[in-house]
């Protein structure tokens, strides 16, 4: 499991929709796996669009119907309702909730904030596609993939330390200025030191360090541009041996 700077009391799990459905052959079996992880009914589902959820052929509704066919044993709310648990405090929800296909930036950031607050006992997320950014976010926060029963590879501790430096600059944004300088120079330094220029690995480290969803999108963009050979103009902020400096810090 990825080590997180920001610890949370919330247990996390997810499943990719294609792994859940498997061409329509595994929805019943995989739904049983999800129910076992969730615990006792009634089940609390949070959908991004309640109006759309009421339509007969809605994919969100199909998932709910398979996980809990008995309508009396489920409750469906708007995903925005999760916002009441975004701040730390003693009163929380000692029950599992199911987040259905989050993909909008504000929904994913809300989910991250609630996980960080740790006021919900368990959160399961059904993810529409493996390429969705929320997938990497959940991996970075140590979620279990219920299809495989495994978590993502452990975040390299030195890379995690670099990600902390990125998080320290996100208050002004990472798309330009000091934030961009920090990200680009650290990416360059680690690549020169032999680390692969792997967007997912960097994003997992960033989320584990407490990074925000919208700022992670900028890191992903920079990595993609660097892979294409784009030369970004930045102001020097770090010594040439910054990776060795971070290694020494981790060793201490």
Summed up:
45% of the residues lie in helices and 13% in strands. It has 252 residues and is of the alpha/beta class.
Q: What features would you describe in this structure?
A:
The chain has 252 residues and is of the alpha/beta class. Helix content is 45%, strand content 13%. It has two domains: 11-145, 3-Layer(aba) Sandwich (Rossmann fold); 157-251. A six-stranded parallel beta sheet has the order 3-2-4-5-1-6, sandwiched between helices. The two termini are 22 Å apart.
Which strand order does the major sheet show?
A: 3-2-4-5-1-6
Q: What's the main sheet like?
A: 6 strands, parallel
Query: What's the CATH architecture of the largest domain?
Result: 3-Layer(aba) Sandwich
Instruction: Bin the strand percentage.
Output: 5-15%
Distance linking N and C termini? 22 Å
- How many DSSP helices? 11
* Rg of Cα set: 19 Å
Give the overall shape.
elongated
Helix and strand run: EHHEHHEEHEHEHHHHH
Are there runs of 5+ residues with pLDDT below 50, and where? Answer: none
The structural class is alpha/beta
What is the CATH T-level topology of the largest domain?
Rossmann fold
Q: In CATH, what is the class of the largest domain?
A: Alpha Beta
- How many separate structural domains? 2
Give the strand tally: 6
**Which bin fits the share of residues in helices?**
40-55%
């Amino acid at each position: 499991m990825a080590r997180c700077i920001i610890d949370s009391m919330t247990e996390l799990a997810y499943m990719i929709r294609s792994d859940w459905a498997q061409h329509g052959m595994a929805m019943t079996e995989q739904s049983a796996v999800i129910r076992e992880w969730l615990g006792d009914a009634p089940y609390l589902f949070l959908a991004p669009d309640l109006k759309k959820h009421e339509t007969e052929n809605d994919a969100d509704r199909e998932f709910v119907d398979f996980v809990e066919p008995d309508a009396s044993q489920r409750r469906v709310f708007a995903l925005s309702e999760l916002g009441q648990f975004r701040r730390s405090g003693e009163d929380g929800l000692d029950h599992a909730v199911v987040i259905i296909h989050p993909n909008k930036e504000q929904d994913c950031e809300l989910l991250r904030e609630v996980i960080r607050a740790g006021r919900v006992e368990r959160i399961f997320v059904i993810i529409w596609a493996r390429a969705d950014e929320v997938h990497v976010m959940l991996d970075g926060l140590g979620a279990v993939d219920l299809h495989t029963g495994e978590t993502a590879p452990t975040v390299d501790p030195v890379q995690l330390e670099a990600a902390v430096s990125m998080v320290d600059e996100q208050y002004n944004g990472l798309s330009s200025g000091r934030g961009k300088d920090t990200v680009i120079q650290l990416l360059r330094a680690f690549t020169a030191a032999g680390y692969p220029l792997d967007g997912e690995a960097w994003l997992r480290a960033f989320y584990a360090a407490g990074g925000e969803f919208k700022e992670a999108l900028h890191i992903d963009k920079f990595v993609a541009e660097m892979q294409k050979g784009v030369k970004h103009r930045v102001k020097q902020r770090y010594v040439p041996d910054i990776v060795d400096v971070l290694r020494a810090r981790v060793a201490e």
